[in-house]
Design a protein that fits this description.
alpha/beta; Glutaredoxin; five-stranded mixed sheet; 23% strand
């Protein structure tokens, strides 16, 4: 414990915040897009497109992870690193008829995008309304 820790509220007794486990499914191939489209006919599918080089994207993703509250049974949640899988990212836009942005969140049902947002708008989506 440093000399200033007591002055600035660090008592050493803080409980460590338990890190929430997010059920990410890596999205890394074009073939998965057809699977996602088909699975969306029975359960909501969510795609989170993330730019690993963008601070804003990291901030939005961190907030999304902190507030994500769906059960695994409610939806499948895909993570797309758009730099590593650029062709997949491009095809997401074409297949699900959205203009590419990052970060970006898409919710799919019945093979179609029912809601999507980018940047701060991602965390404004109430996912419970779409599952």
């Amino acid at each position: 414990m440093g000399i200033f820790d007591g002055l600035f509220g660090k008592s050493g007794n803080e409980e460590k915040k338990e890190k929430k486990v997010i059920p990410w499914i890596p999205l890394s191939s074009l073939d998965q897009l057809n699977e996602i489209e088909e699975k969306s006919k029975t359960r909501a599918q969510i795609i989170f497109k993330h730019s690993t080089t963008c601070g804003i994207s990291r901030m939005v993703m961190n907030t999304f992870q902190e507030t994500y509250s769906l059960d695994k049974e409610q939806a499948d949640l895909y993570y797309l690193d758009l730099h590593s899988f650029r062709s997949v990212s491009n095809e997401v836009g074409i297949k699900f008829q959205v203009i590419h942005q990052s970060p970006q969140l898409l919710v799919l049902k019945e093979g179609k995008t029912i809601v999507h947002a980018s940047h701060g708008g991602i965390n404004d989506i109430v996912l419970q309304e779409y599952v």
